[in-house]
Amino acid sequence: MKTYGISLTKSKFLIVYLDSDTAIPASFIETFSPQATIICFTSAEMAWSWIQVGNRADLIIANVDVGGLSVLEKLRSEKIVPTPPVILITKTITTQLQEKARRLVALDVFSIVSDIDKLNLRVDYLIQKAAYLHSAARWETVDLPELTIPIWKRVLDISVSLAVLIALSPVLLVAAILVFIDHPGPVFYSSKRVGKDYKVFDMYKFRSMRPNADKLIADMSAHNIYNTAETAPTDNSRCENCTRAGIPCQQPLFLKEQLICEREYVNAKKAKAMFSKFRNDPRVTPIGAFLRNTSIDELPQLFNIIRGDMSLVGNRPLPIYEAERLTTSGHVQRFAAPAGLTGLWQVTKRGKSKGVMSDHERIQLDIQYAEKFSFRTDMTIMLRTVTAVFQQENV
């Protein structure tokens, strides 16, 4: 057993990592040791002995090839309370392993060959969520939500989604034909999105843009409705304070062989919008614009809802590059709610020509829903969504 981190204090996030290979844990330790205490075991017997004597972890990461499933099975059979979340890792993910992991209620299964980035994103989220919950409990400033999906919500999701899919099947067929005729290519578009508890999944839509549109996103920041105007620094190598004082830069930073002010660089990074949504997006096809304005392009997400990736009402699942910017204790609570087809921010200000919503306002609405969602809230949002389907802005 090896312990990494400052101390085994209650306030520090504690991770048990089970793996006989040293390469992956070493990289993981380098990434997360500033944020968490990490205890490494090379055998399932050693890990279970540590847990069995009463030690408690905030997260267990266990390699299936080293007995990770046996540790998970013992946790379930012994009914240890509280049971820490368990993430299984393996070289090759099989359908049989996924089914067994689902039956044993594993948090997720990741491939150590291709999913290391996803694993790190999920762990970072869990650490930040724990920090948020600890802070909220200490100051007693919020009513913490139930983090599991209520049965009523899942029943509502499945029954409504199936009914809508059956009723609108002719619309789906016509939309698919029009998408292909308008701009030949794949009818459906899938993208990696981050939902509840920072789980990454493939979200489906009717394609409303020309193919390979994602590659153009870096050149379109000027069209982003969440961007705010930035004030150019008075000097490329000095911040405003140093410029006014007439002194050399006190926080020099060399970036791409150029001297810039670190303070200016940090401020510029903070000024970047956390969300991306574009007005008059030139990548959108003519039929795509109609599908977006009528929200028909969102209908394939009903399959995501049936699969359990999403809910009818929740917080919009974010692309990974957006979600990465929200893994701080002040923002992480939005991921406690399920990903949703519609949600509080859509019916609050979606498509209004006056009073465009800032990214900060949107985050606060997401957090508000995560903390207070209920059956009544969901029904109200669903009814209000009907009147918000036709947008006033081309976004």
Largest beta-sheet characterization = 6 strands, mixed
Number of separate helices: 15
Task: List SSEs in N-to-C order.
Answer: EEHEHEHEHEHHHEEHEEHHHEEHEHHH
Q: Could you say how many structural domains there are in total?
A: 3
The computed structural class is alpha/beta
Q: Give the beta-strand count.
A: 13
Question: Into which percentage range does the β-strand content fall?
Answer: 5-15%
Which residues form runs of ≥5 with pLDDT under 50?
Answer: 5-10, 138-146, 229-235, 351-355
Approximate helicity band: 40-55%
What best-fitting shape do the alpha-carbon axes yield? globular
Instruction: Please tell me how large the radius of gyration is.
Output: 24 Å
**Mean pLDDT rating:** 77
In angstroms, what separates the terminal alpha carbons? 54 Å
Strand order of the largest sheet: 1-3-2-4-5-6
